[in-house]
Design goal:
The protein has ten helices and 15 strands. By secondary structure, it is an alpha/beta fold. The radius of gyration is 22 Å and the shape is globular.
């Protein structure tokens, strides 16, 4: 029997949405889900009906609270790893159309909708249909790998195997390098092995680690060392593990102040120190495009790294777990 819609039901079914749900961090370690007016794209912009947004470790300071933050934080902020469907476009937009599935470089994506500049979205290939794609961190991994200048036959140490470190293990192995993974959690070391690491070393005792890597490399240490933690001790450890004329790549986000480093060692070994963060949005976009291709062709496999999924309704739990890192936690996704 076919169900007949009343005129009221038809009106509801055809009336475009005018509001949305969005997460608002109202104070340190407090978040509320609020109603907000649906944003309208201006000229050169697109509106996304978001499918999801990755949770980034760089969110921890604003969640915990620092003196330089003010609250409430803007609605949907600091979500910047969103992907979804274009549902409206502003004047002059020609590169995408409503219905296209994209990853976006936008900054208020802990919400059902967000606005992005049209030149900061990447159309996703059909091979990724139905798969989560937090474009910004995937693109970040591709850009860091490119800056690292890794080639076959090199020995690469990766310090800190979370989401970023695990992706870099995969990329370095696919390039033909020998990979030594150094990380604190037993779970992350096991994950590094699954991603292709040749050797795993617990990040526990500074001098034991140096001696172990020295042994593994015939006292030559590593041509490339990528520090992914954003912490001072691993940064100094990274210098100790870098070979003469090697490259130390800083991939961790050091956002909590000054660092003391052994510049004498860095100077003596003649190492290149590369800060592998990009600030030009178009460089991010290049990385996201490269990531879409790499995931599509199997060079990069992030699926097993998406370990936890939440909704706006329990996003507070997502933030708490991001901070505490329970066993098995790698990458959290907020889905809508």
């Amino acid at each position: 029997m076919q169900e007949t819609l009343t005129p009221e039901d038809k009106a509801v079914a055809t009336t475009p949405a005018t509001s949305m749900k969005t997460a608002v961090i109202t104070a340190p370690e407090r978040v509320e889900v609020q109603d907000a007016t649906l944003p309208e794209p201006q000229a050169g912009q697109v509106r996304l009906r978001l499918e999801g947004c990755g949770l980034c470790a760089s969110n921890i300071p604003v969640w915990e609270g620092r003196e330089w933050f003010t609250y409430p934080v803007a609605a949907g902020n600091p979500g910047h790893e969103g992907w979804g469907i274009v549902d409206a476009i502003g004047a002059g937009v020609e590169n995408v159309k409503p219905g296209d599935r994209v990853a976006a470089l936008s900054y208020n994506s802990y919400a059902e909708y967000d606005i992005a500049d049209a030149d900061k979205v990447v159309k996703l290939p059909e091979a990724l249909a139905g798969k989560p794609f937090p474009g910004e961190p995937l693109g970040c991994a591709m850009n860091i790998f490119k800056r690292s200048d890794i080639s076959a036959g090199q020995t690469v140490a990766i310090l800190g195997v979370g989401f970023l470190g695990a992706l870099l293990v995969q990329l370095a192995k696919n390039a033909g390098a020998r990979v030594i993974a150094v990380s604190q959690r037993e779970f992350s070391l096991e994950m590094a092995k699954e991603c292709g690491a040749d050797e795993i070393v617990p990040m526990d005792d500074h001098y034991k680690i140096i001696e172990k890597v020295k042994e593994l490399t015939g006292e030559n240490f590593c041509e490339r060392v990528i520090e992914c933690t954003g912490k001072e001790w691993p940064l100094n450890l990274a210098g100790e593990l870098t070979a003469e004329r090697g490259k130390l790549i800083i991939a961790g986000f050091h956002q909590d102040g000054m660092r003391q480093v052994n510049i004498q060692l860095w100077n003596w070994r003649g190492i290149d120190v590369i800060n592998a963060h990009e600030r030009d949005p178009q460089e991010y976009i290049k990385g996201i495009k490269a990531a879409a291709k790499a995931v599509s062709d199997g060079t990069l496999n992030p699926d097993k790294l998406y370990t936890h999924t939440y909704t706006l309704g329990n996003i507070d739990k997502a933030f708490d777990n991001l901070k505490s890192r329970p066993d098995g936690f790698v990458k959290a996704l907020i889905t809508y």
